[in-house]
Amino acid sequence: MADDELEAIRRQRMAELQAKHGDASNNQQGEEAKQRETDMRNSILAQVLDQSARARLSNLALVKPEKATAVENYLIQMARFGQLGGKISESGLIEILEKVSQQTDKKTTVTFNRRRVMDSDDEDDY
Question: In Å, how far are 20, 21, 37, 110 from 27, measured between CA atoms?
């Protein structure tokens, strides 16, 4: 019985190692695909934006990464459909940022919830 149990443990351990190794290769392929996508995005943005606009976009990415990715996606989409005439300057990027800000502008509202515990206007608290 000990040999059978030992063999079962070995098979189980071997299956775990193979599964782990398979996940590692899939993870590595995922990282490579993500790296290729990032490189492609950077190359498209380098073709579309001039140096000052890229600097402004990278500064925005440090402060508000979600807004920067939205602007990058917008620029890449415009470039793919041929809607850009040439390189976008910093002033052009500022206009695009204003458009995106207006679209994603969040309205802040404040509501007051007043608690009415033991607060009766009929009674006088003398």
Answer: 10, 10, 15, 45
Q: What is the DSSP letter of 88?
A: B
What letter does residue 86 receive in the DSSP assignment? S
Question: 60 Cβ partners below 8 Å, 6+ apart?
Answer: 67, 68, 71, 97
β-strand partners of 88: 49
* Length in residues, the chain: 126
**Residue carrying structure tokens 């620029």:** 75
Q: Using one digit for the tens of pLDDT, what is the confidence trace for 66-121?
A: 899 989 988 988 888 888 888 889 999 999 899 888 887 777 788 888 777 665 55
Q: Is the entire prediction scored with pTM above 0.70?
A: no
Q: Which residues contact 77 (CB under 8 A, 6 or more apart)?
A: none
Cα separation, 30 vs 34, whole angstroms: 6
